[in-house]
Structures are given as C-alpha cells and as structure tokens.
Amino acid sequence: METRLERQEQAHQQAAASLRRDVSSLQERLTSSQAELASRVSSNCNRAAEGNARDTSRIAGLEVDLQEAQRLHQQDVALISDLQARLADGETSAGDAAAAAGAQAAKLHTELEEQKQQTSQLHSQLQVARQQLEDRGVSQVQQAAGRDLEAELAEVGEVLEGVEEERDALQQQVDRLEASAFQSANQAREHEDVYRTSLEAAQKAEADQKQQDSSAQAQEELVQAEAQRQEQVDQLKKNLTSAREQLEESYAEGCKAEGQLRESQQQLTEIQEQAAQLKADLSSTSSELTALHQELATRKEAHAHLLQQLTDLDGQQASVQEAALEQRLDETQRLAASRQDQVNCLQQEAESHAEAMSIAARAAAAAEATEADLEQQLQEAKSLAQRSQADLDKHRASAVAAAPPDLSGAAQQELLLKLQSAEEATEAAVAERDLAKQQLSRLKAQMVAEQEEEEGGLQWRIDAEVHLALQEATAGEAARLADHQAHVKDLGDQLEEARSREARLEADVKAWQEALPARDTEIQNLQVALGELTYENEARDRNRVDLKAARAEVQGLQSLLASSQTGLQDARREAEANATANHGLRSAQAQQQEVLQRMQDETAMLRRVVRDNMKRLSALDDPASALVDRRLVVKLLLTYFERDQANEVLELMARILGFSGEDVRRIRAAKQAPSGVLRAVAAAPFNFMRRRPPVLQPAASGSPSASQASGNDADSKESISDQWIDFLLKQAKAASTEADHDDAPSAAGPHATFTGLQEDLTAASASTSAPDALEMMASSPPGGFAPGSHSPFQPSFPPATWQAGGGAGRSWLHDPSDP
C-alpha cells in the first residue's frame, strides 16, 4: 500500500514537475513572443516616427520655401508696380516733350519757309540789279555801290544758306535745338529788314542827291549814308549779341536737358538692374519649383513605400499573431488532453485505490499484522519525503534561478504562488503520511476523499492557470493591436495631411507656372520701354552735337560780320575816293540820275512783284497746279499762225504749255500737210489780227516800239515783242489800280513808277528783239506766277483758263476781289 502511495505521490510530483515545466516553457514562449512583438512594434514605431519626423521636417521646409516664395512674389509685384508707374511718368513726360518739339518744329518750318522766300527775293533783286547795271553802263561810283550792295546781299545769302542748312539739320533731328534755330531765323529776318532799310535809305539818298546841285551836299549825304550804314552795322552787332545770348540760353537749356538725360540714364540703369534682379528671382523661383516637384515626387515614393511597409507589417503581425494564437491553442489543447489523460489515470488509480481499499479492508487484519512493516515503510517514507522536500527546495531554487530576468512582479508572484501551492500539497501529503498511522481505520474513505479533492483541485488549478494565461495573452495582444491600430491611424492621418499639403504645393506650383508667362510679358514690356528711353538718350546726344554745330555757325557768322565790317570800311574809303572824283562827273550825273531814278522805280516795282510771286512759289511746285491763262494761249496761237508757223514760236509754246516730244512732232508733221478748208477757216482770225485793232496799240504812241510797229504795217505782220509790251502796259495799269485798293503805296510804289515803267518798256521795245521777248516769256515757270500776283510779266486775267496738258478748270490767276 505504501509503495503504491509512494508511486502515486511520485506520479503526482512528476505531474507537478511536468506542469511546472510546461508553465515555464509557456511563459518563456510567451515572453519571447512578447519581446519579439515588442521589438517589431518598436522598430515599426521607430521607422514610422523617423518617417514622420522626415515628413514633418520636409513639410516645414516646404512651408518655409512657400513663405519665401510668397514674399518674393509680393516684392516682385511691388517692383513691377513701381516700374509701371515710372514708365507711365516717363511716357507722359516724353509725350509732352514730343508735343512741344513738334509745335516748335512746325513753327520753325513755317518761319524758315518765309525766310527761304525772302532769300529768293533778295537773289532775284540782286540778279535784276546786276543785269540793269550791266545793260545801262552805270558810272564807277554806282558800280562800286552796286558791288557793295551785291557783297552785302551775298553775305546775307550765305548767312541765309547757313540758316537754311541749319533748318534742314534741325528738321531731321526734331529736337530741343529748334528754339535756337527759330531765333536764328528771326535774326536772319532782322538782317533782311536791316538790309532792306539800308537799301531804301540808299535809294532815298540817291533820289535826294538828284535834286542837289553842289558836290558838297552830295558828299554830306554820302557821309550821312555812311553813318546810317555804321548804325546798321551797330544794329547788326546788337542783333548778333542778342542771338549769342539766346544761344547761351539755349545752351543752358541744353545743359539742363543733359542733366535730365543723366537722371533718365540713372533711372534706366536702375530699371535694368531691377529687371536683371527680377530675372534672377524668376530663375531661382523656377529652380525652387523644380526642386519642389522633385521633392514632392520623392515624398510620394516615400509615402508609397511607407504604406507598403505598413501593409506588409500589418500582414506579418496578423500572421504572427494568428500563428502564435494557433500554436498556443494547440499547446493548450495538448495540455488539456494531457491533463485529461492524467485525470483518466487518476480515475483509474482511484478505481484501483477503491479496489485497493476493498482489498485493504479485507486485508485490515493483515495490516495489523504488517504494522511493523508499515512502521518501517513509514520511516522510509519520511526519509523519502525529506528527500522529496530537499528535491523540491532544490527544484525551487533552480526554478527561481532559471526564471527569466525580465518577468514582471506579477508573473513571479504567480509562479511563487504556484510553487507554494505545490509545497502545500507536498506538505499535505507528508501530513497525510504522518497521519497514516493514526487514520488507518479511516484510510479507505479518507484516501478516496483526498484523492477526489486533490484531483478536483489540481484540475481546477490547471484550468485556472491556462485560462488566466490565455486571458493575459489575449489582453496583451488586444492592447498591442489597439496601439498598433492607433499608430496606423496616426500614420494615415499624417499621410492625408501630407497629401493635402502636396496638393496645395502643386496648386501653388501651378499658379507660379501660370504667372510666369505674365511675368515674362512684363519683362519684355520693360525691355521695350528701356529701348525707347535709350533711343531718346541717343537723340539727345545728337541734339548736343547739333548745338555745338550751331555754336560753330554763330562763330562763323561773327567772323562774317567782321569781314563785312572790313568790306564796309573799304567801301567807305572808296566812297571818299569817289567823292573826290565826283567833281569831274557832274556833266554825266544828270543822265545817270535819271537812269538811277528809273532803276529805282523799276526796282521798287520788281521788288513788289518778286515779293508777291515768291509768296506763291510753293504752289508752282505741284504739277497739278500748272495752269496757263486762256488769253495767253490764244496770243501764242495767233502769233504762231501769223508768223507762218515759226519754229521759235512753236518751241515757246512747247515750253510754256508743256508739250511732249510726240506733240511737237505731230504739229510739225501737220504743218507740212496740204492746206484745205479747215486751214482757211483757222487762218481767218489771224488775217483779222493783221489789221492791228486799237486795243493792242501801245500806250506811248511816240515810243520807238510804236514807230517799229508802224514800220511793220507794210508787211502786215506785227512783232511779238510789240504785242507783248502792249499787253504788259495794260496789265500794269490794272495792277496799279488794284494796288490802290489793296494797300497803301510806298515812296517807290506803282503810282510813282508807272510813267517810268511805261517809258522803260517803250524804250526796251526798241532794243529788244522778238527772240529776246520770247526768251523772257519762256524764262517764267510753265504754270505762270502765283495766284493773286500783278506782275508785268504775268498779269491777272478773268477766271477762264486753259490747263497745260489739256483740260479746263478754274484759274488761280484771278482778281483779288473774286472769292
């Protein structure tokens, strides 16, 4: 019996030891799985934290870059607005300056055209005076005076040519020096007025000299004329001084404009620097945008990789957890099966114990007999219990030593409780063995009860331990799973936030890319404005060069004035010499005075004619205005047929009426054709003209031209020069009548000179041949003189006209009263 109990006790101890080993192995596995899971979770958390830190740092960097880009954009907008304001101001000032320059240019052009007309008048007067002096053979004194006048007029012509060249240069430049050119034109006009005054004074002095008898009075008048010329020279000096002051003022204005130009250049330099800075900012912004694109791409890849890692980690963790749970479930099932086997064994042992108890009951008697043997066995059991206690202590020490150092206090306490329970069970067994002697009578019932209680308590403890271990494992896994899910959720939130930031950054990048073309357009506009300002600066530089040229021209005028003063002194000396020789010229002075008076009258009349015709000279430049009076055409045709179709008259008609070569050839071919009825009808008016109607008689019948015309009655042909002179006399009378209504006549006007003009023309008719008259007619422009002129060479006619080239129209040679 004791042997069986010992075997049962040993079996119980072995079962407890195996249970302890299973519990320790289970705890070790659980600890290792917990450590592995914690390491994996910590590594994943570290990786996620590192990724989040990197994402946070990158996002912070992107936010800083975005703020910097916004700040640069604001600076660019402010800079562009400032540049636009400056450009608007520059365009306004440039427009005002251009408008002022255009007005000044138009005014200068008008005044210089008038100056050109006056210059042409002076040249015409000079040519007429020279021709008259050569034709009439004036005295040496008058030739000297004419040479002086010619020299002065030549100087004035040179001055006016210089001013005209200046006008051409200034008109091409159209700049700020137009004011100085305008002043030069005024100065030239004042010079012309001065010379005209001097000429009139000289003519008046010569007219007064005609009425004086003594040479002393003539000498005194010459001295007065010299004094007047000296006054004129002084006046010219004053004019030059004023012109110099005006040029200095224009130079000051040029300096001021140069200062403004420098300021504009500085502004242009600043604009260029700002444009370069803007380009650099744009390039840096483009590079930053490219870097942002690249970083966004890398972040996308990193996020995708992180998501893949999280997915893999979730899968691995789920698989590991499932495998661990399945393994634990299998172990629990195996443990439960082993426990069930142990229970079955215990039941079998209990049955065997029952049988043994029956046997013991039957062998009670034998037990008493074998009490001694039991006593001995008890001693052996005690020794065995002591050995078991020692083994248990040793096993406890080894279990404590073999326990994992990282177990928590609860696990150690639980293990100690289990060990204590095992010790208590062992002590109970020892106590039971101690009480075996005393309870031999109740051994059967007590052993069965103890065995049942021990089996039930052991099963309950095993189930409780397994259930507790499973609950702890499940709770730990649930907590870790909840933590992992929370971490994954945080990572998902961070990922969504990163995606939203990425979308915002992409929107900002798109906005920057859309703003880049507008920025490029603004830069191109700034470059265009910069080119315009550069062109204006170059124009101002050219203006400064022209200002220097104007100064050089003023210096030339000053030298010309000095040379004119020298010539004036020479003329004064010649006048003194002529005054000493004037005593021997009294006899010829009367004739010369008469000739001079006539020349003065002609000069006054020609001056007026030239002045009126030069005012209308510009109208003759237009080919469409080449109109010829109808009566002049009739006169030419009559002369052509009266002179038997003379070649010289045909050439004159071709020049005046603008015939082409083909027209001349056709007329000459028609001239050789046989005569017929049409030719006889066409010749009837010319036969009538051969009878010399009274309307074409000369005004002075006693003149040489009249005698010449009377001499030509024999052959019934009238000279074209006589007809032309008669025609001019009538028109001169009409011109003098119209001049009374237009303006007040001067001292040498048409009324005072009409008689002399009539005598001159009558005298000229005697010495002028028909070819000369034709040449005088041909020397005029093809279209005649300007509208409203009353020249003896081109008089006014009724409105009916004939236009060269065929075609009739309204004549511009009309009466001034005709609107």
Tag the structure with descriptive keywords.
single chain, 819 residues, mainly alpha, two-stranded antiparallel sheet, 2 strands, 1% strand, rod-shaped, disordered C terminus
Q: Gist?
A:
It is found in: Golgi apparatus. This protein is an all-alpha fold and 819 residues long.
What this model shows, in words?
It is found in: Golgi apparatus. Residues 24-46 have a biased composition (Polar residues). Residues 1-54, 202-226, 694-716, 774-819 are annotated as: Disordered. Residues 1-10 have a biased composition (Basic and acidic residues). Among the domains are: 2-73 and 288-504, no CATH class; 616-803, no CATH class. It has 17 helices and 2 strands. The chain has helices at 2-136, 140-173, 178-211, 215-362, 364-369, 371-402, 409-434, 443-580, 586-615, 630-642, 647-657, 661-671, 677-689, 704-711, 720-742, 750-767, 770-779, and strands spanning 627-629, 801-803. Helix 2 runs antiparallel to helix 8 (443-580), helix 6 runs antiparallel to helix 7 and helix 9 crosses helix 16. 18% of the residues are buried. Mean pLDDT is 66; it is low at 403-407, 680-717, 743-758 and 760-819.
